[in-house]
Design goal:
- By secondary structure, the chain is mainly β.
- The protein contains no helices and 4 strands.
- Strands 1, 2, 3 and 4 form a 4-stranded antiparallel beta sheet that branches.
Length: 82
């Protein structure tokens, strides 16, 4: 847990690692909310092709600004279906 003031920006980064078509992984769809202002993520990927296998990591770095005071779980906003 961390504390951020309303109107102050912060970043949230997460990585997806695995084997397969890492390039095809899309950013999560975020529902509009009055609690946060979300900016488009910076996306970075590292792909390794070796011995007939494709592995890699795709990183998503979001910048957000809280609009409303309160306690929030980011897991309520970032969800993956796999």
């Amino acid at each position: 847990a961390f504390t951020v003031e309303t109107g102050q920006s912060f970043s949230y980064q997460f990585n997806v690692y695995g084997e397969g078509n890492i390039s095809a992984i899309e950013k999560p769809v975020l529902d509009k909310t009055a609690a946060f202002e979300f900016y488009e993520p910076n996306v970075r990927q590292d792909i390794n092709r070796e011995n007939g296998r494709v592995t890699g990591t795709k990183s998503f770095n979001y910048f957000m600004i809280p609009r409303e005071p309160g306690e929030y779980k980011l897991s309520d906003y970032f969800q993956w279906i796999y």
